[in-house]
Amino acid sequence: MSLKFCPKCGNKLEPDASFCNTCGADVKVRETTVQIPTAQTIKSSQTPLTQPETVIYANFLKRLIALFFDSIIVGAIGSVFSWFLFASWLPINILDPLGGFWFSVPFDFVFGFLYHWGLETYNKGQTIGKMALNIRTVDEKTLKLASSSHYALNNILKGSPLLILDFIIGVLKNSGDSKNRIRIMQNISETVVILSR
């Protein structure tokens, strides 16, 4: 079987030609070294790396302890900021003229989200609590760092009381999951938590 077009310039070749008439490329050598990919090689090159043998998914206890550490950090820093920003001890507080602390709830939610999302995005999938326990959040298909938007989806409920609902639905849906996903937002964001080495 001979080539119909030159692989170098794309010009149409004459049947059984050894060289291209336009560019002079040797098409006989090219003809003998061309390998036609089989369906199996095409399929294997297009499927992403899903689960190497060495990956260990983080268990529930490690993740709970990491969340506990992170909650202490978020709570302490968020309380200090909200106390200064929304303090009723000031005669007139521009940010909280009515003197109620209910304005601090959205602030604490935003701060908690930014803490989890920012650290996971810019710190290789780890918050301070996850660094202490040597675990990280990664993309579930490639097991590499996830995109910033996936980290945002994963952490959108971490700064709010809706985290409890996220956990309950996740446990019901993911019971028996081999990837140890325990929150529904992990399914939506396509992320998993693994032990880092």
From TrEMBL:
Residues 57-170 form the RDD domain. GO terms for cellular component: membrane. The keyword rRNA-binding does not apply. The chain crosses the membrane at residues 64-86, 98-117. Keywords: Membrane, Transmembrane, Transmembrane helix. It is a multi-pass membrane protein. It is found in: Membrane. InterPro entries: RDD, Zinc_ribbon_dom. Residues 5-26 form the Zinc-ribbon domain. Pfam families: RDD, Zn_Ribbon_1. Its main location: membrane. This is RDD domain-containing protein. It comes from marine sediment metagenome.
